[in-house]
Amino acid sequence: MNDRARQPKPIALLRLVLPIILAVVGAPAKAAEIVADLTSHLIAIGSGFTGASVVLFGAIEPPGDVVSVVRGPLRETTIWRKGKVAGVWVNTESVTFDNVPSFYTAAVSRPLDQMLSPDASALYRIGTANLQFKATSEADPRKVRRFTDALITHRHRCIPLRLRGKRCMADNPTSIEAGP
What kind and span of H or E run contains 141? Predict the structure, then answer.
C-alpha cells in the first residue's frame, strides 16, 4: 500500500469529528427553572373597594437575573399641550395614542442594560423607552416623539404618590431582591 491510502482524508476526518464538536459546543443551554406565584389570584372589586396589594414572589434555580413586567390593559390616551391664547392658558395641541398601557412597571434584579441586549429589551418591550406608542392620526414624527416623552414623564410623576388612583409608568431598576 502506498502512503496516501493510509492517511486519513480530510472529509472523512471532518465527518467523524464534526458531530462530536457540535455535541459539545452546540448543545443548547439549559434554561433556569423559575417558580413564581401571587399572594392573591383574585381581587373582588365592589362599591366598597379601597385598594389591594398583590405580591409576586418566587425562586429561581440556579440563581440568576429576574425581570418582572406588569402591564395594564391598552387604552386610547390623548396628551395635550397648553398654550397662551389671548392671555388665557388653553389646550392648543394634542396627540392621541391608541395603545398606551393603563399601568406599566418593570422591576429587575440588576440594571437592565447589564442583563439584556438593547435588541432583546426592544423585542419584549421591557423598559419605558421600549414601549411603542402609535399615534392615531398622521403627525410629524418629531411632534409624536415630543408627546411620547411628555406622556412617559407625566406618568413617572405618580410613583412617589404610591400609585393611589393614578395611571403610572415606571422602571424600577433594582427593586427585586435576591435572597440566599
Answer: helix 141-156
Query: Exposed/middle/buried for 68, CB within 10 Å: 0-12, 13-18, 19+?
Result: middle
Q: Tell me how far apart the alpha carbons of residues 67 and 29 are, in angstroms, rounded to a whole number.
A: 19
Q: Is the whole model's pTM more than 0.85, yes or no? A: no
How far apart are alpha carbons 156 and 134 in whole angstroms?
Answer: 19
CB within 8 Å of 12: residues ≥ 6 apart = none
* Host H or E run for residue 5: helix 3-6
pLDDT at site 22: 53
In whole angstroms, how far apart are CA 51 and each of 57, 163, 165, 166? 20, 10, 9, 12
Q: pLDDT tens digits for 18-71?
A: 555 555 555 555 667 888 888 888 888 889 988 888 888 888 887 778 888 888
